Predict the 3D structure of the following.
Amino acid sequence: MLHLSRADLLIDDAFIAGEWISLSNRFAVTNPSTGEVLADVADCTREHARHAIDVAAAAQKEWAARTGKERADILRRWFDLLIAHADDLAAILTAEMGKPLPEAKGEVLYGANFIEWFAEEAKRVYGETIPGHQRDKRIMVIRQPVGVVGAITPWNFPNAMIARKAAPALAAGCAMVVKPAAETPLSALALAKLGQEAGLPSGILSVLPATDSAGIGLEFSENPSVRKISFTGSTNVGRILMRQGADQIKKLSLELGGNAPFIVFDDADLDAAVEGAILSKFRNAGQTCVCTNRIYVQDTIYEAFIDRLAAAVGALSVGDGFAEGTAIGPLISDTAMDKVCHHIADAVSKGAKAITGGNPHALGGTFFQPTVLRDVTTDMMVAREETFGPLAPVFRFSTEEEVLAAANDTEFGLASYFYSRDLSRIWRMMEGLEYGMVGVNTGLISTEVAPFGGIKQSGLGREGSRHGIEDYVELKYCCLSV
Ligand code: ADP
């Protein structure tokens, strides 16, 4: 049983157009650690999405007409409520998703920070005046909200991926209809409940738990009232949404898969590099889109680095996310387990060796041993595919040119990391890595104050920073003849 100081934050209704709706069709949400059913949640259909969109379209006009400060005040109250109830939100998150409780609390605070940040930005959606091109012309540019946004979010950050989208959208004056991942709708519903308490008007934020994700995705794509889709998830589903949105030239923000390289040069601070590798690889059991997927270590320090990494990884404790000291929770599903097993088997069959871990954990279920593979080469699946699990494959390289080419040899371009103390090399690498984000001597880069996002097939748009609001506004150029 989940113990919350506010039991009413555990919700199994859908939140549509400002109403909490109970439906006869329901689906079970389970704790991946124990298999316990946490809730039977209302299962929304495409028709519910249509209704939520209709109401959002009507409500959005009045919301957009408010001043930035009026919207900011409500968002700020929402932030305060999220902070006040962070422990409950973290418990709900750990229960439905499995990540260790301190990580869940970190996610809740991280998500809340976006709401605080964009509450402040709501007041700064500035326009521009441009000197006219003719003597009688005056030119103004105003920024206006895009309108109703359909959001589809994944299970790995059930709270923050919604906060990160809703904050800039609502700040700009948009309305949002959210379809959370079916594995993790409870965090989304709790967020919406606190948004309602903060004073968000009816219909400005709806949350539709649903198993028919394809149907809801189609409604978002085909309903002309939806002006934009904001999606975080796999590159494959991103492609589907892009294709589906083509008919209506739907605007898209896509935050898709990654294949992050983590490069350690021989001039690096090795202890710092090991610590960074642990944070960036094993956070959320390796289930984040910015998680390190490939570790490249320079020849001369390969053995030293791998010994230290294996020792640190071997010390990570695997267990229930609520247990004191747990560093690695369960994976989200059997499919996730299969993928990790498959990547390890493929690498080992081609010559890699597991120096720690390598197998499902004795706890059973979807617990997996944190694993380090050595002697990994580019012909192995781990070189190309995102593992999304607690597996650190360590490649060997000799020159900067070689490792830069290897790091960029992927269709993905989300996060990348490297460790070096040579200033010229740092500049060369920062400029040469074909990624939307580069961590230099750090394995943790996510923050609301910086633009998060990818290039190549890792996505479109940015979340966070002053740039984040641009995804939710349109420029309108007005030419005045005087
Ligand atoms: P993951 O592998 O992390 O589950 P997905 O891309 O499959 O990544 O899921 C991310 C989100 O996309 C989830 O909310 C899921 O329900 C939703 N989703 C999956 N398939 C589709 C689809 N065809 N159209 C719209 N949304 C989808």
